[in-house]
Structures are given as structure tokens and as C-alpha cells.
Amino acid sequence: MKILLILIVFGVLIIVHELGHFLFAKLKKCKVLVFSIGFGPKIFKKKIGETEFRISLIPFGGYVKLFGESEEEREEKDSFFLKPYGTKVLVVLGGALFNFIFALLLYTFFYTFIGERYIKSNLIDKPPLDSPAYKIGIKQFDKIISYNGRKFEFWEDFLKEIQKGNEIELLIERNKDTLFFNLKPIFDKEKGIYVSGLYPLIPPVAGEVVKNSPAYKAGIMEGDTFLKINGVRVFKWEDMVSIVETLAGKEVLFEIKRKKEIISLKIIPEKRKIEDKEVGKIGVYPPYELKKFSFFKSLIYSFLKIFDIILRTFIVIGGLIIKKYPISSLGGPLLIGKMTIESAKMGIDVLISFVAFISVQLAIINILPIPLLDGGQFLIFTIEKIFKKRFSKNLQMVIQAIGFAIILTLAIFVTFMDIKRILK
Known about the structure:
Helices cover 44% and strands 23% of the residues. It has a four-stranded antiparallel sheet with strand order 5-4-6-7. A four-stranded antiparallel sheet has the order 11-10-12-13. The protein contains eleven helices and 16 strands.
């Protein structure tokens, strides 16, 4: 079942991408000779009209072959490379465009029909030293009653207000007293966001318990309060997470409160790989509420979500170039497969969100200006258009060889890193 799920996810993403190339090629009356899901030897083939549809052995990719791509066809009448600039650009970027559209549809469906998980607690955790919240006297365990005259409901909404960068009027409850504060967020250049020093203090209470997880098998129920872990008192959700993460694969004694009863349970946290680090997870979410939105709002939130992923991806790419992030942090198909399984374990909502995220990543990777990728083709067509001169056959062969070497090197490297992570 796990392998089948991975193949379905990969297959859907590949079909969406190649369908973008195929449909735009058809729209612009370009001859499509082959539509292949996968690379290498053919497992299945069927010719419909001028196009041979294939399923090939290696599932990590696909391609659309257009008339004119081979040397003998390149200068013939209907060759793709003799088509107008606009046609060529539309066809080569069509795959990435469809991946963006697919992600937009998934996120819109997610926000409209499933809903986003919103934290219920209005408690404030200890503000970091020298943060805006710390400087104006906000303390741990304070409760946010309202901000800018708006009743506090969810942290996610409040954090969006912080990102506006404007001064916020806060109504705070402390020991049954009501206090007023004016909070001015500051811009963190390194993170690229506004920060205030306000973060949620989430009580160590079980929300949703993931089916068949270690917590589920041990008998943890929604509403249980975690009191101690291996004799260590926990006061907030973060305490519990930080302790459990260090105990992957080890038997752990949990002391919980269920209504008025104190119960002791033994749980072995399962091992999970997160950013090259092995951590323990028991399969419990903090208390949350699913918040759904209207179709129009969902569409707007989906656009913003995709824009945020694009921005953060290019920040990471920049960080890799300047060696801020280690290149070993890159992942390939094996890591994506592993994360697909883990996402599915956490629920259909997490899986849908993950597939949408990967669809955006696939689009971004393909528009990078690397020869053989869609972005490299776009760059070549644009240079030819500007200088009104086509690249010579020899130059094209050199560019393709360089592109192939880059892609092959990256593919081998990320696959090696994936295998290394699995073996660890």
C-alpha cells in the first residue's frame, strides 16, 4: 500500500506537469509524438492519432516529445523549433504553469472543504529577551483578550495581523486584571518577517490522536492532560514535544490526567527523520479547531500560500549558493516518497497539503535556468529572440551536454543523500 500511494502521488504530479506541455502544444497546433509517464523501457503504449502514450519503467519523471526535437526534423516545416517565440514559451512553461494551477486547486479545496488547523489557546508563552513584547512588559501566562478591538480567536489570525507591521492595541488579562498595551512589531531581516516576541503557550493536552500511532495503541485519548514524562513535569506542549523527540525508539513512561483520574502509560515513540535529524513522535496533535473559508477567501489564501512557498524556496536556494545552508539538506525522490507516507499517516488533510507543496516545488525546479529543464529552454528561446539568431547545432549540443551533466550530478547526489538518511 505504501509503494502504491507513492506511485499514485508521483504519477499524478507527473501527469499534471506533462499535461500542461501537451495541452498547450495541441492548442498551438504543435505535433506531439510521445507523451510518457516515466523514463526508460516502455511498460505500456497506445497510439492515439499522432501521439504515442506510454507508461515507462522509471517513475521519477516524464516527458512530451514534440516533432522537430530530433536533428533530422529540426528544420522541417512543422518543427517545434520553427514556431513563433510565444508558442515555444507557452509550451515549455506549460508544465510548470499546470503544477501551479494544480497546487492552487488543492489548496483551495483544502481551505474550503477540509479547513486549516487553528490553535485554540490564547495563552502567551515567555517573550524572548529584548523582543518588543518583553520590552513593554508582557509576561508568560498572560491571556490575549482582543487586538485592535477585535476579539482574539486564533493565533494564526493574530500572527497575520503582526505581519502588517503596524502598531497593535492589545487587551490582556493577567490574574483577573485587565491591562492595555501598544505593541509595535519589528522587521527581522534574516527571517524576512515581522516579529513581536508573542508566541502561543499551548497546554499539554491531547487533541487529535492519529490512528495506529504509538499514542493511539497505548490508549491516549483526546482531552488527556500530560503531567509527567519519565518523571519530568511538563507545563506546556513544547515541553512534551522536546522531551519526546529525544526518546525515539525508547520506552517512555507517561503520567496523564483523564478527568479526575491519574493514569500511567508506557509508549515507545516512533522514529522520524526531520531535517537530517532523527526524532521521536507519538502521534498526538495539540487541541485545534478546523477553520473553513468561503471559496473566494480560500482562493486568496491559496494564492498567498503559493507565493509564500515560492519566496521561501528562493531564499533557501540563495542560502545554498552562499553556503548558509548545507547542500546535504537537499532531498530527492526517495525522501519525497518517505514524506508522502508520513503525511498520509497524519491524515488526508496533511497529505493534500503536502502534495500541493510538492507540486509548487516541482514547478519551481523546472523553471530554473538549467539546460534541459523548462527554464533552460525558455532562456535559450529568449536569447534567440533578443539577438534574432538561432543557436548553432554545435552550441546546442554543448549546452545539452552541460545540462545533462548538471542534472545527472544533482540526481546522483540527492539520491545518495536519501539513501544515507534511510541507512542512518
